[in-house]
Amino acid sequence: MTETRQIVLAARPEGEPGPEHFRLETATLPALAEGQFRVRLIWMSLDPYMRGRMSAAKSYVPPIAVGAPMQAGAVAEVAESRHPGFVAGDVVFGYFPWAEQAVTDGAGVTKVDPKAAPLSAWLGVLGMPGFTGWIGLNRVARGKAGETIVVSAATGAVGSMVCQLAKARGMRVIGVAGGAAKCARAVLDYGADACLDHRGAPDARALSKAIAEQAPDGVDVYFENVGGKTLEAVLPRMNDHGRIALCGAIAWYSGAESPPPLPPVWQTILVKRLTVQGFIVTDHQAHYPEFLAEVLPMVGAGRIRWAETVAEGLGSAPAAFLSLLRGGNDGKQLVRIGADPEAAA
Ligand code: NDP
Q1: Ligand 1 pocket, 50 CB below 6 A?
Q2: Is the per-residue pLDDT at 345 higher than 60?
Q3: Which contacts (CB < 8 Å, 24+ apart) does range 271-275 have?
Q4: How many whole angstroms from 75 Cα to the centroid of ligand 1?
Q5: High-pLDDT (> 70) share of the chain, %
Q6: What's the CA gap between 261 and 58, in Å, rounded?
Q7: In angstroms, rounded to a whole number, what is the distance separating the alpha carbons of residues 184 and 327?
Q8: Which one of 137, 225, 231, 258 would you pick to mutate in the ligand 1 pocket, going by the greatest count of ligand atoms within 8 A of its CB?
Q9: Which ligand 1 atom sits closest to the C-alpha of 47?
Q10: What is the pTM of this model?
Q11: Which CATH architecture describes the domain 128-281?
Q12: CATH of domain 2-124+306-344
C-alpha cells in the first residue's frame, strides 16, 4: 500500500474561487493490477481552464466532482510498473490528479525525451499552451506578414508564444498585459513592437485609444485570451474583414468583470464583417508533431523564449492557482511536486 497526498475540490465556487474550495487529503493508492503503473509527479501545470472544471456547467471537459481530486497535466517519473510499455525510470507526460503520486493504466500517457528540453518545458512552451498559441495563429487566425496583430495576456504561456511566432513571420505585434514589468517583457523578450498595460488603463476607451496609436492602420488579427475590458478596447480598432482567434476569456471565468452589452458587439462584427472563430486545442492534436518539428529546434536555438513561475510543493497549488487567475504569474505557472532528476543531473 502506498499513501499519497492529494488536493480535492472541496466545494464549487460561486464567483471567484478561494482556498476554501480546495482540501489537502491523504489517500491510499491501490496495489498495481496487471497493465498499470505508479508515477511520482515532478512538475504539475496550473491552467486557467481548471476554473471551468470547478463549476458544474457543461463544457468541453467534464466538471470535477465535489470531493474528487483536481486534475492537471504533469510530467512524472514511473516509480513501479506492471505495464508492458512503461518501466521504472521512464519520464512521462499525462493528466493526473493534483497529487504526489498516482496509479494509471497509461491511457493518454506519453513518454518524454528527458534530453530534448528541460522537463518543465513539456508543460509550457513545448506543451499544451505553446501548441495552443501555434494552432491559434497558424490554423485559426492565419496571420500573415505585414498584418497587425493584438495579443492579450501577451506574456502568458499562450500569449508569449503567439507574440514570438507572429513577430518571426513579419507581423506588427501589439501586446496587452497587466503592468509595466510584463509589458517590458513582452517587448524585450517576446519581440512585441509595443505593449499596453490594461491594468493601468482607466477604462476600455483609454485602452482603445492607446491601441489606435500603436496600430495606425487598424488591427487585422486579435488573439483573444481575456475578454473583458481588453476585448471592448480592441473591437472598435478591428479592420474590415479582420479575424479574431477566440482562445479564452479569463476576465469572465469567475464573473469578476461584467460583460459588455451584446448588441454593440454583434453590430461591430456585422458592420466590419469580422470572422470570430473559437477553438479548443485538443481538437487539433493531429498537428502536434508538426508544431514540435517547427518549435523544438527554435527552442533549442534560443529563438523562442519563455518564463516560468514555480510554486514549491503540492500544498502550494491552490494558492498558486488563485494567483494565476488574478495575473500573479509571469509566464507558465508550475508547481514543483518532486525532485527533477534532469535539473539535478
Ligand atoms: P496565462 O499564463 O496567460 O495566465 C493567465 C493570465 O491572464 C494572467 O497572467 C493575466 O495576465 C491574465 N488575466 C487574468 N485576469 C485578467 C483580466 N481580468 N483581464 C485581462 N487579463 C487577465 O494563461 P495561459 O497562457 O495558460 O492561458 C491564456 C488564455 O488561453 C486563457 O484564457 C486560457 O483559458 C486560454 N486557453 C485556451 C485554450 C484553448 O484550447 N482554447 C488552451 C489553453 C489556454 P496579465 O497580468 O497580463 O493581466
Answers
A1: no
A2: no
A3: 272/238, 272/239, 272/240, 272/241, 272/242, 273/240, 273/241, 274/238, 274/241, 274/242, 274/243, 274/244, 275/241, 275/242, 275/243, 275/244
A4: 21
A5: 99
A6: 23
A7: 16
A8: 225
A9: 26
A10: 0.97
A11: 3-Layer(aba) Sandwich (3.40)
A12: 3.90.180.10
Tell the residue nearest (CA) to atom 8 of ligand 1: 327
Q: Is the CB of 182 under 6 A from ligand 1?
A: yes
CA of 159 to the centre of ligand 1 (A): 8
Mutating to test ligand 1, I would choose from 16, 134, 226 the residue with most ligand atoms within 8 A of its C-beta, which is: 226
Assess whether the C-beta atom of 225 lies below 6 angstroms from ligand 1.
yes
Q: How does pLDDT run across 251-299, given as a tens digit for each residue?
A: 999 887 788 889 999 999 999 999 999 999 999 999 999 999 999 999 9
Secondary structure letter of residue 337 according to DSSP: -
Give the position of cell 508533431. Answer: 289
Q: State if residue 148 touches ligand 1 by the CB under 6 angstroms criterion.
A: no
SS (H, E, C) 255-292: CCCCCCCHHHHHHHHHHCCCEEEECCHHHHHHHHHHHH
| Residue spans per domain, the chain | 2-124+306-344, 128-281
The residue to mutate among 125, 158, 291, having the most atoms of ligand 1 within 8 angstroms of its beta carbon, is 158
Angle at CA of residue 132, ends 296 and 148, nearest 5°: 95
Dig out the grid coordinates for 305 from the structure. Answer: 523564449
Sequence-ordered list of residues with C-beta below 8 angstroms from that of 72, at least 6 positions apart, any chain: 44, 45, 46, 47, 50, 95, 96, 97, 98
Q: Is 100 exposed, middle or buried (0-12, 13-18, 19+ CB in 10 A)?
A: buried
